[in-house]
Amino acid sequence: MKVGITDVAARAQVSEATVSRVINRRQGVSKKTRDAVEQAMAELGYERQTQGQLVAVVTEFVSNPFFADVAERIESALAPHGLKSVLCPAFPGGVQEREFISALVDKGIAAVVFLSASNTVEGSDTDTYELLRQRRVPYVGINGEFADGVPVPVFSTDDMLAAELAVDHLYRLGHRRIGMASGPAGNQPADRRVRGFLDAMAKRGLEDAESRVIRQSYTVEGGQAAVAPLLALGATGIVAASDYMALGAIRGIRRQGRSVPDDVSVVGYDGSAITEFTDPPLTTVRQPADRLALEVGRSVLALVGNRDVPTGELLFDPELVIRSTTGPPPDRA
Length: 333
Known about the structure:
By secondary structure, the chain is of the alpha/beta class.
C-alpha cells in the first residue's frame, strides 16, 4: 500500500498539517518535531513529492574565503528545514557546471544556487538552465543575472555603489590619480564595478579614468600584474576588484620598492574576515555575506515548497571598512 501523509502523521504523533509543513520545508515547525516527522517518513518509506533534499551550490571561486563563507551561510540557512547543500566547484579545467548538474538531477536534487558562476559571464552556455527547467528544478543566482533572460531570483551586491564608496574614500584622503585593478571583461560584477568607478571619477571631475582601468584575473597574480601599468600612469590609489587582487597589488607595489599606504593606497573588495589580519590590515568594501545568504536560503525554501517568490535582481548595499592600507597621497602626507 502507498504510504500517505495520514500514515506519517500517525507514526510521528503530529497533525497532517504539520507533516505537510515539513514536506514543503515551511517554517513554524520545531527541530524536534521536524526530526520526528523525517524519521517517520524514513521508517514508513514515504516518498517526498519534491525531488530531493540536496541543494547544489555551484561556484568557480571555491578557494576564495568570501565565497566559502557565503556557501557555509547558505548551508546554515537550509539545514534547519531538512535541506543539505553540496558544493560544486566548477572551474576551467575541472568538472564543468553542466556535468555537475546533469549528475545531480539524475540522482534527485531540490534546487541549484549559482554563486558567481556562469550567471556572471556574458554569453555563457544556457543549456544547463534549460535542463533545470525541463526537470522542474528551481534555481537562483548570486551576483549576476542569467544569460537566457528567464526571470528567476538573483541576489547581488550593488557593485556600482561599491566602486563609489572606494573612490570616495580615496578622494577624501586627497588622491586624484586613482586607478582600478578590475576583473576580466564580460564578467558582470567586474563590468559593473568599472562603470561605477568611471561614474565616480567623472562625478569628481577626474579625467583619463578609463586609461587607469587595468583588466586582469580575480587572483593575487592578477592584482600584482595590474600594478606596474598603474604606477607608470602615476596612480597613488588603487581600487581592486577583489581582496585577492588587492593583496596581489600590495605585493606588486612592494616589489616596485614602494610602501603601502605611504606611497600607494589600496582598497579591496569582498570583505573576507582574513583581511583584518593581513599586513597591513586591508581597507576593503565588504559584501553583506550574511544578508545575501539569508535571502538566498529563504528563496530556495519557498521555491522548493512550490511557493512564488519575486524574480529579478535584488541589490544589497556594501559597506566600506577602513583599515591600514589607505592614507593620504605622498604629496599630502
